[in-house]
Amino acid sequence: MPSSYAAAAAGSSSRNTNRKFTAAAAGSSSRKPNPTSTAAASTARPSAPLPSPAPKPPVVSPSAVSDSDPSSYSSSGDEADLTASDSATASVVSAYLSVAGEGADLSKVGIFLSSAARRRSPPCLICFDPIRPSDPVWSCSSSCFAILHLPCIQSWAHQSASGAAVPCPTWGCPKCRFAYPKSQTPTSYLCFCSKTVDPAPDPWILPHSCGDVCGRRLNANLESGCEHTCLLLCHPGPCPPCPAVVPNAPCFCGAHREPRRCAHQRYSCAGKCNKRLSCGLHRCPVNCHDGPCPPCAVRGKHKCECGETMEEKLCSERVFQCKRECGGMLDCGKHRCERGCHGGKCGECPLRGRRTCPCGKKDYPKLECDAEAATCGSTCEKVLGCGRHRCPERCHRGPCDETCRLVITKSCRCGGLKKEVPCYQELTCERKCQRLRNCGRHACKRRCCASDCPPCSETCDRKLRCGNHKCLSPCHRGACSPCPLMKTISCACGKTCFEVPCGTEKNQKPPKCSKKCNIPRLCRHKLECRPHKCHYGACPPCKLTCGEELSCGHLCKERCHGPISPPNPEFTLKPTRKKMEKHIECTPGTPCPPCKEVVLVPCFGQHLGQERAMPCSKWRPFPCQNLCGNPLLCGNHYCTKSCHVLEVPLNQPEGDPIASVSKVNALAEPCEHCDLPCQRVREPPCSHRCPLPCHLSDCPPCKVLVKKPCHCGAMVHAFECVFFNNLKAKEQVKVRSCGGPCHRKLPNCPHLCSEVCHPGTCPSVDQCMKKVNVRCACNTLKQEWVCQDVLKEYRNSGCDPKEVPKSQFGVGLLACGEDCKKKVKVQDSELHLRKTQEKKSPAVEVANVPKRRKRRDRGQEVEVSKFQEVKTYVLRVLLIIFLSIIIAAGLYLLWKGIFRLSDWMNELEEQRARQRHPRGAML
User: Fold this and answer.
1) 11: exposed, middle or buried (C-beta count within 10 Å: 0-12, 13-18, 19+)?
2) What is this structure's pTM?
3) Where is the composition biased (Pro residues) (predicted)?
4) In this model, does residue 894 exceed pLDDT 60?
5) Cβ(707)–Cβ(724) under 8 Å?
6) H/E element, 908
7) Distance CA 374, CA 371 (A)
8) Spatial separation of the C-alpha atoms in residues 222 and 141, rounded to whole Å
9) Across 833-850, average pLDDT
10) Tens digits of residue pLDDT in 391-407
């Protein structure tokens, strides 16, 4: 590999360390080019002198692009993205091919790389839908490199190859019309370099690419001698020219050699070609050129081939023939040469050799060349001009009559008419052909057509997919070709524009123009507003504050609502989608709205913290949600009316801050009158209310009788509320005691408390000294224990005394003796005797009583009599016989009908034969 090519490869690979288009064709537009890679490429250039200085790579302006620019189809983007993508593309192209020179190939590479850097793909030219990164696509491999949907191009190829009346072996690209054979119809989704099938979408690489090195051959022409491959990552569009250096590249004439780039190794040295021309006498005087040398242009006098005439001719035209006949004697010595000017001998006499009569049936072997052959007298029988009949005349000299007058039965070209006419005459009928032409829409209408209908001569005139134009091609089958026209979409001022295919302009956004809007403002801030860029429609409203003084004294704080310039109707863009317009409170060009300065307004009752913030234009007094709260005349309660304007009472001194307004206020109303009972707490406190209405003096003592039970609950005492509440706590306990024994039940045993009526728990809870009768389990033994010992015994045995019922208290604490066992045996023998007596006297069963069946078995056990079985069998046999008779009758009738149909058809054939041959029928 040459050193310069390795340097360019190193410069390109340094930018692609992560196998991503970082600052390259498929990278993000916000990334910047790597300066180190450019420097590496520049330092690795060969030291050999180059023929021309390294020009800068062409940078395509986004405002002027051709129809092959994919970026021209997309909507305008941010200006920063455009600048970044153009600089990135320029750095990639300059690092990859620093001295390639300007050309169509390099400009196209820059266009495609700029579009890839901006991540914008054109719409499909067949369906006009945008091409998404996840859609399978196909890319044209010819000069246009158009990107289309894979299903769309497959349908296009199928319709182009099989849509016409005669199947076509090729189909063309919808954009450049490059002809592909039917075998190259795309069947799979490939990346741009065709190395990966169904490339997975990756947000870090270019859509529809594999992310690997392209590797395509830079020069597809095998005779060019270039064997290098593309070092860019998989990309759309053409590969850049080969940047490798050939050390001894010969010029076209081979006289000069110098180091050249591989893509430009075929060059002219600007010297004379000096190659020997085809004449073999002179050398090429043209400067060093590609291809064969031109014909020799040296003029001179040259003889013709026969040598009789001499004319001035070009050296390349020195061999020529004059216009006179030769006239030389043939080798027979009797006839002269009838050819024109020629070189060499005249040749043998054509009349020598085998001689025959004119029809060729009789030979004359010894006849001289100057003697005329006699006719044989038989029929000529040479094939006439019609090619089917022979000449009926006798052997004659000269050509046969070309007009065959033999009368034959001919059919017209369409086969609709048969007639006897001379053979030379062509038979045509007047019937018009009704077959459809190759377009499939119009009838042939040609008289007497022989099924070779000519192509349709009318114009297709169908509306194209763009919706703006009609198809001007001849009438055809299948889908029409895409509209070849381009539409220009410009900004409002018309200085920035780009072209898109016709029909896609409705889905495109206008370009963003960096020029300033030149429409002057009409509001009062025309000197303070910041200038804005070119735009469609009316100018945006002024964003400054209005600042005019209102009648209330405040300044208007709304956005400027002065007049604005109307939109330019020539460049008004019609939106394709309805967008929700932002709500603007101030309509442009209207007076200032009411003042919206927020002020605090107190309520009617001037309650603290109930001030309400209101716009200045909507100021008004209001009642708050609180109650009035003004003290009533009773001195104990407050006004429970809702917030209202207070009326100054007559007995209130002047200057009292309670009153909110004076008596003059028309909205003032008096507070309510207190009708509530006394709600004071009595002294001493009690739960009884004062019977007097609301008053300011002390309440009278409470004389209500209070019922209090004694401590044990045996009796109830009645006390006056004042007397009982004035006693101390110890005195209240002493007064409530009944003085008798406590009637409360002890918690652990079934006995009552033996103490005097007392408050709290009973003291003898675990020291009950009453006697309890303790028995054994069979109630045979009996003893008297103290209740305290019974409780201890229960606790020792692990039983809770509270769970023992009162009737079983003390039972089972004594162990059974021998007397208890004897009583148990006597009881068991009596029980055994009672069981044997019960077995000897069983219950008498009622005979002849059928058991009741279960409900689910009632309908299943049904006996069928023999008569019913015979009846069922006979009915089945009769039914089978009846069906057999019906089938046999049907087959018989069908057989008879077929024979009758055959006889009827034979009669029709005989009638038709009689109509065709009436004479034979009469005989």
Assistant:
1) buried
2) 0.41
3) 48-60
4) yes
5) no
6) helix 866-916
7) 9
8) 17
9) 50
10) 888 898 888 887 888 88
